[in-house]
Amino acid sequence: MIATVIGTGLIGGSLAISLKEKGVAQHVIGVDQSAAHLARAKELGIIDEDATLEAALERTDLIVLAIPVDGLLKLLPQIMDKVKPGQVIMDVGSTKNIILQLVAGHPNRGRFVAAHPMAGTEYSGPEAAVKNLFTNKTIVLCDVKNSDDDALEMIENMVDQLQMRTVYMNAEEHDLHTAYISHISHITSFALALTVLKKEKEQGRIFELASGGFESTVRLAKSSPDMWVPIFKHNRNNVLDVLEEHIHQLEQMKTLLEEEDYDTIYKLIQKSNKIRKILK
Amino acid sequence: MIATVIGTGLIGGSLAISLKEKGVAQHVIGVDQSAAHLARAKELGIIDEDATLEAALERTDLIVLAIPVDGLLKLLPQIMDKVKPGQVIMDVGSTKNIILQLVAGHPNRGRFVAAHPMAGTEYSGPEAAVKNLFTNKTIVLCDVKNSDDDALEMIENMVDQLQMRTVYMNAEEHDLHTAYISHISHITSFALALTVLKKEKEQGRIFELASGGFESTVRLAKSSPDMWVPIFKHNRNNVLDVLEEHIHQLEQMKTLLEEEDYDTIYKLIQKSNKIRKILK
């Protein structure tokens, strides 16, 4: 089949590579509002051909929207207006509720499968695209009851061929869970980077001591604001909810440290160690 | 030379391996209050021999204290009381100020070199010891003016042979910098793990979606409370200082999100992206 990837950055580019490599698509068309990204994606062999959206829609089987979620709000309804019988649209957006509400009543809603692969890195653009980004990762498919059977089947087959693990959720569940498992990690990293950069400015020499633990905790602070501001906007209520809880936990640590209640700090750390069961 | 490692866990065990492998020591004696750790360290070939502290002190050239910083407070003065001419004592503790104040007036202060290798993992015990943990890592040597020339020279030679990069600091600087570059990362991870574990309990299914970004941010929450509570205790003022600043940054994000001031959030994320210059 022919696949079109709209947005040839980290996720779209990596998906284009995998679709070809795993034999899901024989030909991948790239569409991007950035001419530079598109040229680079072609140069790197990530896409077979670049085209306008209109030209791609003339002959593609699958359309994957791999753009920030604010762009999705504009482009998804336009593509759903133009989609032909048999064509399938998929997104890879990190938030789902607002988008699915927006297209809920669309006559071509059935052609759309809402997807969120839980994979990525802190880098962006076609240069960031890598082989096997999705292998053994989880993909969330949302509100699949509203997708046509054949559309869902195409995506489920694709997911199998990409060797991904599928989780089905409704949009509300998805947005709540990702706030806890992904969005808060980014806010924490951004805030921690700001904290340390500020101190470095006052004090200097801080980064001479940066080691693996620090790097691990702040690496997400390299992530693009173009991607993340729209996510925080779309998932504002859930993000505020988890942010409040996280601040509460930090305040608690602070109070315990002020009161020198080391026994309780010990117990809290022991409790947090239970995360071992979840992480490999 | 003969080296004695007191504490055969992650750091002491890894150091024992490297001392032998790089030819710094021909024989490594292990001392540990846990008989199980000591037996395991010998079984794994990390140490050549186990001994009591007293027996080891009879014939060792170098004594490395690789135990939590609260244990160091008790044991370091005792060992300084017993140290023989020519013997050198080194620690690997994550805090320095309290310990160096404690031994400031000791007649054998010159035999001690205060060191902190900026290397580790979230695991502990002899099983966690690994080859090359220290290669290309930074080691901080503190208040070296108070160490005897020959003692410092032995440690500097060792550090060279381990292929580490040396940074010299006074104890106050060290404790301030590590609060920002290491201790706060651990508090954040512990608090984030508690936040998510709490929500998981209420909500379930959260961890189905855990991916690399989450794992990276919370992996330090697997760290041992036996090591970390004493560090927070010793470095309480600096940790409180950075924790306050971090909470302030998170509160700012929260307020901006409440007010839907996405332009300012965008600018803050851009600013935090400057961490790219520091991280590889």
From TrEMBL, chains A, B:
Record's superkingdom?
A: Bacteria
List, alphabetically, the Pfam families matched.
PDH_C (PF20463), PDH_N (PF02153)
Q: Which keywords annotate this record? A: Oxidoreductase
- UniProt GO MF annotations: NAD+ binding; prephenate dehydrogenase (NAD+) activity; prephenate dehydrogenase (NADP+) activity
Give me any GO biological process, just one.
tyrosine biosynthetic process
Q: Which InterPro entries match?
A: 6-PGluconate_DH-like_C_sf (IPR008927), NAD(P)-bd_dom_sf (IPR036291), PDH_C (IPR046825), PDH_N (IPR046826), Preph/Arog_dehydrog (IPR050812), Prephen_DH (IPR003099)
User: Can you give the residue ranges of the Prephenate/arogenate dehydrogenase domain?
Assistant: 1-280
Could you tell me which PANTHER family the record lists for this protein?
PREPHENATE DEHYDROGENASE, PREPHENATE DEHYDROGENASE [NADP(+)]
The protein's name in its UniProt record = Prephenate dehydrogenase
